Fold:
Amino acid sequence: MKKLVGVGFVLFVAASSAVLPLWLTPTDTRADELPATSAQFLAVSQGPAVSPPVVGQPVLARQTGKVHEVYFHEGQHVRPGQLLLKVVERLPSVQQQQLQLRLNRQQAALTVLQQQVPAVTTAELTAAQQQLVATRQLLARQVPMLSFVFVTAPTEGIITSRTAAPGDRLTPQTPVGTLSTELPADTTLLLTSVR
Structure:
C-alpha cells in the first residue's frame, strides 16, 4: 500500500488505481508538459444596443431675478407645476415710480429747452439740468421692493441636468435645467408573498 499525505488528512491507497476516481490517482505527466490550449471567447449580444442618454428639452426660467433657493436635482422625477426654483425679483417702490415719472417729464422739458436755445437763457437751461441731476440722485438712493417668484416644471419628466444655482441671475430665456419627457420603464419587482 502507498501512503499519500493530503491537506490535513492521510489516505491509504491500494496498489490498483481503479479504486479511486481519476482526479485522486497519481499521474506521471507534469503540468508544464501538458499542451497549452488557448481559450476563445465569443461576444454574445444580450439585447438591443445601449442608446445614448436622452438630452431632453430646456426648462426656461420665464422670470427675471436672482436664484434664492433650488428645489430639484439631477435624476429627479417631476410633475407639471412642481416647484423648481425660488427667485428674488426687484420691484420698483411707489416712490421710485413717482420719481421715475418726474425724471421722464424733466428730461422731456430739458429736450424742449435745448431745441429753443437762442430764445432760452442760460440760467433756465442750467436750472433744468440741475433739477434733472437732483431727481436722478433721489432715484438712485431709493431701495426697491423685493418679491419672490417661482419657476415650476412645465411637464412631467426626469431632470437630466441642472444649470441653475443659488445666486445666479436669471432672465426669462435663461435655462435652469433640462427635462426629459421619456420616463424610464418601471422595473419594480413585485413579490407574490412575504414570508
Remarks:
- The chain has a mean pLDDT of 78.
- The first strand starts at residue 2 and ends at 5.
- DSSP finds two helices and ten strands in the chain.
